[in-house]
Amino acid sequence: MAKKKPPSRAECPVERSVDIIGDEWSLLVIRDAFDGVRRFGEFQKSLGMAKNILSTRLRHLVTHGILEVVPASDGSAFHEYVLTRKGRDLFQVLVGLRQWGEHHCFQPDEAHSVLVDTEQGRPVRALEVRSESGRPVTSTETVVKKVAEKKPRAKR
Amino acid sequence: MAKKKPPSRAECPVERSVDIIGDEWSLLVIRDAFDGVRRFGEFQKSLGMAKNILSTRLRHLVTHGILEVVPASDGSAFHEYVLTRKGRDLFQVLVGLRQWGEHHCFQPDEAHSVLVDTEQGRPVRALEVRSESGRPVTSTETVVKKVAEKKPRAKR
DNA sequence: CAATATGGTTTCAAAATGAAACCATCCGGA
DNA sequence: TCCGGATGGTTTCATTTTGAAACCATATTG
């Protein structure tokens, strides 16, 4: 839920991300936002979630700069929730979740939606993690380098 | 928590993924597993979570084939939890979360750990979503194509 | 200007969480 | 081999979060 906790001070970026968007509803709200959902009622209907929970989630995402509130695009007095740059930058994460789900959460004969590029109408490629030199690397070929203890710069 | 719910029948792969791993603890357990954590006590200490919750999460991840229980590598009678192929395939998702966190959840002067490839010891590249032709595409250049209503194949 | 749609908030029961106590097995040493 | 501690849990219970439903204020529509 929208955490009362102070912003995560973890040194691990994964942890900070998860602290913000690592709950089911937030990720699904973001997915809907990528799909063009903008209005409170649309989210609620699409996700089938309780209004109070949606309300806290939207507030949470706005607070964290992932969504922003803008005047309704149809000129009415209502407002809408749209992804910020920060929110759109979650694209790779959503694509990763999508591709993993496609690969591991469906039976071979089961149909699922597909992410296609609008230009060609063909499915996007599988995400690849690449080294700086461009070589694809697997998880076993990488390691997390802990942050060096910030050595206070010698006075100069 | 470990859901009692039957496996998600959503047609959206993102939703199925999120239904399985879309909670804070599961993702952090998986992150630790990528970092080589294998023992119950290690997870518990690393994550600082209650043992009962860790217990349900590990069971949940094992049930869903993301972790598997193997005999302890040190020959003791205890066992260990290691990522399966399915679990390792979450690499891109974790990398996505990491890179987003690095970019959006740290102050410019704040240090954070870094994922490097062991071969060169240099940070991996930023994930890119590419079209089938290899062109990088943004979220605005893609669309989710809903699954065609499975048309029962005409009898032949 | 009345009726309804929209976008919430409040209330309250049920479920999940987390801290702590408890417990069984394993291991290492005297 | 037997004792004490480490390991890997489960149980218990108070607190927190969730979710369904009722309620409410403003906006829009007829």
UniProtKB/TrEMBL annotation, chains A, B:
The keyword Transcription regulation applies. InterPro entries: HTH_HxlR, WH-like_DNA-bd_sf, WH_DNA-bd_sf. Pfam families: HxlR. Residues 12-109 form the HTH hxlR-type domain. One of its GO terms (molecular function) is DNA binding. Residues 143-156 have a biased composition (Basic and acidic residues). Keywords: DNA-binding, Transcription, Transcription regulation. Residues 130-156 are annotated as: Disordered. This is Helix-turn-helix transcriptional regulator.
